[in-house]
Write a structure and sequence with these properties.
alpha/beta, 5 helices, Rossmann fold, seven-stranded parallel β-sheet
Length: about 180
């Protein structure tokens, strides 16, 4: 808009889309609830969750199974040992063409070369990345117009910082109480 032209790429409705959530902790669950409310079907992969917390949500047995039908893949998992990528070439190969990838968790969860290849061949139609493989990032993902990149600043508000500090103090008190027993 600032350059004087309108985007020409069509959008998509969330209603009816299949959302795949990786990591169903506090944040992943909240994202799934919001997408569910907006009319998405929810599938998830989390090796630490046995059953679906909501009746209509479907548990996938693997990440490859999760991405086969997903229109959207949203990552909410911790970093893996040795910064091993979860979303690899094998996972991208199984993706439904035109998938949207959202990563607000850890940059190391996605193999950058596999992501670049999947962006080039159209497997990945777009990505929203708040975390990247390295910081500061100046790599090739920035050259794709269908990739939206933010500098991992979602928690950079006074309210969020106060909550994070209060939670850190609460956890320190709980830990100290445990040590005194």
């Amino acid at each position: 808009m600032r350059r004087g032209h309108l985007p020409t790429r069509p959008g998509r409705l969330l209603n009816g889309a299949q959302a795949g959530i990786v990591g169903l902790g506090r944040i992943g669950t909240r994202v799934a609830e919001i997408l569910d409310f907006l009319g998405c079907s929810i599938s998830f992969f989390d090796p630490y969750i046995g059953e679906a917390p909501r009746g209509a949500w479907r548990r996938a047995s693997s990440l490859v199974e999760l991405v086969r039908d997903a229109d959207i893949l949203s990552l909410h998992a911790p970093a893996q040992p040795g910064d091993r990528a979860l979303v690899t070439g094998e996972v991208f190969s199984a993706c439904k063409r035109g998938i949207i990838i959202i990563n607000t968790a850890r940059g190391s969860l996605i193999n950058e070369e596999a992501m670049l290849s999947s962006l080039r061949d159209g497997t990945v139609a777009g990505a929203g990345l708040d975390v990247l493989p390295r910081d500061p990032y100046d790599g090739p993902l920035l050259s794709f117009p269908q990739v939206i990149v933010t500098p991992h600043v979602a928690s950079n508000t006074p309210e969020t910082r106060a909550r994070m500090e209060a939670e850190a103090v609460r956890q320190a008190v709980v830990a100290a109480a445990g040590w005194q027993r």
